[in-house]
Records
---
Amino acid sequence: MKIRKILKYTFLLIFTAPVILICLIWLNSKIISLSASGKMISDPGTLNRKYDVMIPGAGQYKPEQWINHSFNHRMEAAVELYKAGKVRNLILSGTYVSGLFNEANEMRNVLITFGVPDSIIIRDSTGFRTWESVSNIRKQFNLDETVIITQRSHLERSLFIAWCNGISAEGFEAKPVPHHHRYWNLREYLARIKATCDCFRHHTGL
């Protein structure tokens, strides 16, 4: 009888554990989305002054290989914000691998071709993850407020990370990527779990 009960509860656990895990992942994502509610804009006119603006990295790939819509749309949004007179400095934060790619340089090169002056561009080549890109706003540049430019789902996570680091941040939405790239939504769920864990470690020191 005891063996039957053990088997019963074992099978119950096997079947319910994945459901519970999926629910927790969904709930975590929803909480991060709610934390960014009211902090995202798409009209430069809603900003009443110039800000230090941060753009998290996205590599510029060769068109014959792959068009990186994330990169292109973030650059377009940055230029729009600059031309609207809302940018004091542009912090370009991304990954750097010697001899292979430098996301901050790639962003800089494109922005200059659109008329953004090099004098307001600040490069951060230590933004290996979104956590570093956002937290460096305070750690490296001693800023306590910023505007972040990226796509909506990534923007919600970036604003959550800013909140975790005590940074007052608003988000300026770049255009979304085409539908055939929606597989990134799954990656975003996992990245939000990582962001929550990073936030917990940041505040607990564990």
---
Amino acid sequence: MRKLLPAIVLFAAVACDGSENLHTPEWTLSRMLEQPRYEPYGPSTFFDDGRAMRQPVAGTVSREAVLGSALFMDGIEEGHYAGRFPLPVSSALLAEGRTQFGIVCATCHGVLGDGKSPVAEKMQLRKPPSLLTEEIGSLPPGRIYRIVTVGYGLMPANDYQLTAEQRWAVVAYLKALERSQTAKVSELPPDLRVELERQAP
């Protein structure tokens, strides 16, 4: 064993030699910035068909097939913000939207969506805007859905606490809320006008 000890020590010293790793680091990071790569849809001399992008593996399932349509998940239809709802706008959907709006949105935007709330009054950097303005009211449902999903400005994303269906419910309720705050009596159905006049003081 004593005869093998010098050989083991010599082998360990050689194996642990890290001198090849001792070099001046490259501070410009050019190796990370200038990496050989193919651009999407660009040509390629490596593949036989001359294209850089590869066909999906046979049997690949699209993201939309797993999660739902682009309209439902992203608020996008034919490359534009959707102008319609992917769900039937029912009383149940509006009720769910009202509940979730009260939990998630009203804290900052106010119960009426007018931007008036105790929390908003204490915000110094930028106060939450009223959601009843003509500018916001003109936005298509898909645009509002995207704002609720990914956030806007200082407003955080809400996709982590609201499901896609709940987010659409909030959008539907907001549209109903906008309508309720800006509708004229003359635009109401006759039976509702009569009822409103009966209840008026």
